[in-house]
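We emphasize that the prediction below concerns an isolated chain of 105 residues; any contacts that depend on oligomerization or on bound cofactors are therefore not represented. The input was used exactly as deposited, without trimming of termini.
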Amino acid sequence: MESRLISRIDAHKFAREAYDLGVRYIGGCCGFEPYHIRAIAEELAEERGVRPPGYKKDCLWGDALAESTEPSEVWKANKDYWTKLVCASGRADATPLAKIPDMQF
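Result of the prediction step, given as a token string:
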């Protein structure tokens, strides 16, 4: 996976799919950010028997946005929004993720 193109939600999905395939050593390399590793740890917390440090400050699926005073943010406080989010990197070679139609380079 190209770490600069995946979101935290993508990391959740990746961890679950890898685990379900039998992979038991999951991590990242160059470009992986702390939020990617945290997403993997959160996704597999039940299997690991422990949640990552600081889990009480973390809200999965943007739950904390429900308490926002900004109405434009409150509607994002649900799993459906975050799992359907399509990341765009701004890089020309990332057209499938950015959904840029027929660009000529």
